[in-house]
Write a structure and sequence with these properties.
2 domains, mainly alpha, about 180 residues
Length: about 180
Amino acid sequence: MDNLNLDLKFENKILYKVSILFSILMLFVSSSTLSEFQASYAQSTNVIENNTDTNTGTTAALGSASNTTASGVSDAAEKTEDNGPIQIISNIRNLLNQTLQEYENQNYSEAEALATEAYLDNYEYVEAPIAEKNQTLMETTEVMMREELRQLITEKAPTEEVKGHIYNINNNLDRAEELLGSYAS
């Protein structure tokens, strides 16, 4: 049941992000100047923050799934601009290390929550810059984090297998860091 709830929360978050991106794109297309775009974006963010579907609790589910708020898009922009992709990759590594520690302590639900956070609250924010440099690397790493690592945890795979998988993810993150070196501050 927990996996079903997590999958639904994940799907809701993806749908939410797609709708936000579409709204931003529509605002951008209709805005003739940067200042008009910024004002429109701020207004749309406020509307989204104040709009909660009370029947499905979609906004509430998104917040609880990943410690983000309805302003996740502005958080993403802030995260990428303030920390840069290299810092976000460092955050991912820290979360993966914590995931492994919790897994080794047989705290599987916390390990899965940390792995999910590494993907949803971090990796998603560096996918675009990585894809600009190497689409295949971005997609491979995404699947490794989003699907395979969660599956290993859910199936309570041997610790060495989880450790090896995280090692492989970190190798891909090393390659991403090399490609994104120009983003380092």
